[in-house]
Design brief:
heterodimer; A: 457 residues; mainly alpha; Formate dehydrogenase/DMSO reductase fold; 70% helix; B: 167 residues; alpha+beta; Alpha-Beta Plaits; 4-stranded antiparallel β-sheet; 50% helix
Chain lengths: 457, 167
């Protein structure tokens, strides 16, 4: 542009011309466009199971918790198992987003959004199980300290109440974390959307333009949220583990529970990230963004956390023997060779033996193998909680009170429904918001461009 | 007054251009970036973000609330649990910890809204969707007789285009 003389400046105003959109935007926004037959089929299936669980829950409200197989001596059944399972799944999101952010592990950028969304939906799924488990869900608010005419307050010395505070804080912080990270990406989508989506994104983007003051505040907020979420994520599953460890039930009453549960949670969460991201990568052609490098790194995490779990299993057995406490020894003997031996061996093989294959580099980048392994780990981790909860409760101190717990059909129906609920929200999220953090991918791309330019000089 | 927008490809160029403009006394400068680059944000305003103040306030309020809530409630409705004192610090630390995180997390986001000036109801006409693609923009307000000088300065710093948006 030749600088115009000042008197004709007004005549020179023209809008900033629009070059073709960037490759990153086109690739990553394409995930949100169009819906195939397969998508509607999966969404329909998820909705079916979600509504099935709703119907079973209404039936359970009508008939009472007896239909869930709650009978002496096992009053914490599949609902609590599934609650712990989903809370565990929810841990990978924050680990990937917050902890890897603080360690400046840039490879997280390709998977953090998917993991954060997974976290939010997994926490929401888990939270419902507390209500389903207590039976009278409409009285769930009793667990909160609210002013009431009777002048009652909750018991702050109870691990169940710590859990309430931990899980609700975790849900709030993960939703904020997901949304704060999404704002710049929603603005990208807003600039390219039409129709009702334009309205939705305009509202949700809050007028984001990427100005220096916005980025500065955003950077600082993400840093602080990461710093806050890191101890939070470690505390949440520790508190969940204390629900068990603070009791006197043989098999539960151990000090290793907090680190053991946290490692297990990260293990299962990473497995779930793989279970979700492998098909998404394949279906939407995101091979350029989620590469072997990412799979290799995630596999290493799986291997590390699997070894920590294996160590925890071994030390539990060793200490129950070494303690010389007979009920402990019996509880652990019966875990492996009693009525729940199948669950125990599924847990040991799927969680500690199979992941050892990840020592081989070839298998760490073998995507079909990783998918199968991640599904096995999910199953194994569900059984881990099943073993801990059910086998311990059904084999307490007095053999006269022993019993055998068999999951009932309403429990299994609601378990299936929890996957339906989770998948429904995940599938809707997939079509409304970018599943890979676009701005963060650009940050890497622009850095590379800058370094390439310097190299050329 | 006129406003010029220079289009750049790399964050280092933007930072250099902004520093030169500030050196010449232009203060009404805004940058648009597709991704976070601290060098650009610091060139416009070198001060650290004040979001941290709100995070700190949230944390302090949270920890005080956590202990106050638990200790007061436990003494207001006294239940003896395991022979422990009513004002029992170790278990209440867990509640105080969670509330510290909750309050400072929420206030951090409030800080993002206040210091990032969100929500913004009117979008600057100098903003263009290309800044949410891969281009950077530097918007300067200047007197009309300075347009030529700024145009030259932006181009010297590798601006690919310079456009006039307002006068």
């Amino acid at each position: 542009m030749t600088p115009p003389p000042t008197d004709t400046v007004a005549g020179m105003i023209r809008p900033v011309p629009m070059p073709p959109d960037s490759q990153t935007n086109r690739d990553l926004l394409a995930v949100m466009k169009g819906t195939s037959w397969g998508y509607w089929f999966l969404l329909g299936l998820s909705l079916f199971f979600m509504h099935l669980a709703g119907a079973i829950w209404i039936y359970q409200v009508y008939k009472g918790l007896g239909i869930a197989g709650y009978a002496h001596p096992v009053f914490w059944g599949v609902y609590i198992v599934t609650f712990v399972f989903w809370i565990g799944i929810a841990h990978a999101g924050t680990l990937i987003s917050a902890i890897l952010f603080l360690f400046r592990a840039k490879w997280r950028n390709a998977i953090n959004r998917g993991a954060e969304a997974m976290t939010v939906f997994a926490v929401l799924t888990a939270a419902q199980f507390l209500g389903i488990h207590v039976g009278r869900m409409w009285k769930s608010y009793f667990i909160l300290p609210y002013p009431n005419q009777r002048g009652l307050w909750v018991n702050f010395k109870s691990p169940l109440l710590w859990d309430t505070f931990a899980v609700s804080t975790y849900a709030t912080i993960s939703i904020l974390f997901l949304y704060v990270g999404l704002i710049p990406d929603i603005a990208i989508a807003r600039d390219r959307a039409t129709g009702w989506k334009k309205v939705l994104y305009t509202v949700l983007a809050l007028g984001w333009v990427g100005s220096s003051s916005q980025w500065k505040a955003h950077n600082r907020s993400v840093l602080h949220l990461s710093g806050l979420a890191t101890p939070l994520v470690l505390s949440v599953h520790s508190v969940v583990s204390w629900d068990f460890a603070v009791t006197l039930v043989p098999g539960w009453h151990t000090t290793i529970f907090a680190p053991y549960f946290v490692a297990g949670a990260i293990f299962s969460g990473f497995a779930m990230v793989l279970t979700l991201m492998i098909p998404i990568r394949r279906i939407f052609g995101l091979e350029a963004y989620i590469t072997n490098y990412h799979f290799d790194n995630m596999s290493r995490f799986l291997l590390l956390t699997s070894i920590i779990c294996g160590y925890a299993y071994a030390s539990e057995y060793f200490l129950s023997w070494y303690s010389g406490v007979e009920p402990e020894q019996t509880a652990f003997w019966l875990r492996a060779f009693g009525p729940y031996w199948i669950s125990t061996w599924v847990m040991i093989i799927f969680n500690t033996v199979l992941p050892q294959l990840l020592w081989f580099k070839k298998l760490r980048v073998n995507v079909p193998f990783l998918f199968v392994l991640s599904v096995c780990i999910n199953i194994g981790m569900w059984f881990e909680r099943y073993v801990i909860i059910i086998s311990s409760l059904s084999r307490e101190y007095d053999p006269a009170t022993w019993g055998v717990f068999i999951p009932s059909w309403p429990e299994m129906g609601i378990l299936a429904g929890s996957f339906g609920f989770f998948c429904t929200f995940f599938l809707i999220f997939l079509k409304l918001f970018p599943i890979i953090a676009i701005a963060e991918m650009k940050e890497i791309a622009i850095h590379e461009k800058a370094h390439g330019a310097q190299g050329a000089h | 007054m006129a406003r010029l927008v220079g289009i750049f490809e790399l964050p280092a160029q933007v930072a250099a251009a902004v520093k030169q403009l500030r050196g010449r006394g232009y203060t009404d400068i805004e940058t648009y970036a597709p991704a976070p680059f601290p060098e650009v944000d610091d060139a416009v305003d070198p001060k650290a973000s004040r979001v941290r103040l709100l995070t700190l306030i949230g944390g302090l309020v949270g920890v005080v609330t956590g202990y106050a809530l638990t200790i007061w409630m436990a003494n207001n409705w006294q239940i003896m649990v395991g022979g422990k004192p009513f004002s029992s610090i170790p278990p209440y630390t867990i509640i105080a910890f969670e509330l510290t995180i909750l309050f400072s997390g929420v206030l951090t986001v409030v800080g993002l809204f206040i210091f990032g000036k969100l929500p913004k109801f009117k979008i600057d006409p100098a903003y263009s969707p290309r800044f949410s693609a891969e281009d950077f923009g530097v918007v300067v307000r200047c007197r009309e007789q300075d347009v030529a000088e700024i145009d030259a300065l932006l181009r010297k710093n590798d601006a690919t285009e310079v456009n006039l948006v307002e006068s």
